[in-house]
Design a protein that fits this description.
There is one protein chain. This protein is α/β, with parallel strands linked by helices and 237 residues long. The protein has a single domain, classed as 3-Layer(aba) Sandwich (Rossmann fold), CATH 3.40.50. Helix content is 36%, strand content 26%. The chain has seven helices and ten strands. The protein has helices spanning 56-66, 92-101, 104-123, 135-146, 165-171, 192-201, 221-236, and strands spanning 2-3, 8-10, 13-22, 25-34, 41-46, 70-75, 128-132, 150-156, 179-184, 207-212. Strands 1, 2, 3, 4, 5, 6, 7, 8, 9 and 10 form a ten-stranded mixed beta sheet that branches. α1 (56-66) links the parallel β5 (41-46) and β6. The radius of gyration is 16 Å and the shape is globular.
Length: 237
């Protein structure tokens, strides 16, 4: 477990790469902080399916949080980014195989625990939240349910559906921190009813449902901006 030489500073944000060895797999990650490194909170960013830890919207979120004095961290999910082999994640029929090859739900949980352990060992423990939609919720709901360090979560675009639907259904009741949950009403990938079922199953009493018209990838910009405000406000308090 160590930092690598992929360090970049621009627009007041420092970006550092790291690599972890978890269950004989290499897990690449990236960590963003304000250039002055004065960050008293942390948000974990879960990317969506067929993307990676530095896809544009994840980097944009990292910069938005850093500009508020909040550090951000992301890792490549199972079979994605630097962990991808061929174009398997682009084929919906192969996605379940990719997920299982990466260790499934248990392997994914081990990856994120190791990443957060590493960042806390290097940078110190701080109030921590989760931001992740679609596959970011496939990862984020189990992490939020099982790791008490996660104090608040932005989830959505996922339901009782997909390769870890049984894990999502089983663990939803164990999510007890505040949650904002986004649903695209015309989602052509994840059935709306499955999303609403997952939202309903969340154990927390502090949850809000934000539904908007549009397809899976048409989340309004104001919802993304609002989610940054949401995590900022709760982690500050």
């Amino acid at each position: 477990m160590s930092w690598n030489n992929k360090n970049v500073s621009h627009d007041g944000v420092e970006e550092r790469g790291f690599e972890l060895q978890v269950n004989k797999q290499t897990i690449p990650g990236v960590y963003w902080t304000p250039s002055d490194k004065k960050a008293d909170r942390l948000v974990l960013l879960g990317h969506g399916g067929s993307t990676h830890k530095k896809v544009d919207y994840i980097e944009n979120l990292a910069f938005a949080f850093s500009n508020r004095g909040i550090a951000a961290m992301a890792i490549d999910g199972p079979g994605h980014g630097e962990r991808a082999k061929g174009g398997a994640t682009d084929d919906p029929d192969s996605f379940a195989k990719v997920w299982r090859a990466g260790g499934g739900n248990d392997g994914m949980l081990a990856d994120w625990k190791a990443a957060l352990d590493f960042i806390e060992a290097e940078e110190g423990a701080r109030p921590t939240g989760w931001w992740g939609l679609s596959m970011g919720t496939m990862m984020g709901l189990p992490v939020t349910a099982t790791d008490s360090r996660i104090r608040i979560a932005l989830l959505g675009l996922m339901g009782t559906w997909g390769p870890n639907k049984d894990d999502l259904t089983r663990l939803a009741s164990e999510v007890t921190c505040p949650v904002r949950f986004l649903v695209q009403w015309d989602d052509e990938i994840v059935p709306r009813d499955a999303c609403l079922e997952l939202y309903d199953a969340l154990g927390t009493r502090k949850k809000t449902l934000h539904g908007n018209p549009g397809k899976h990838q048409q989340v309004p910009e104001f919802e993304v901006d609002g989610s940054v405000d949401y995590l900022d406000r709760y982690l500050r308090s």
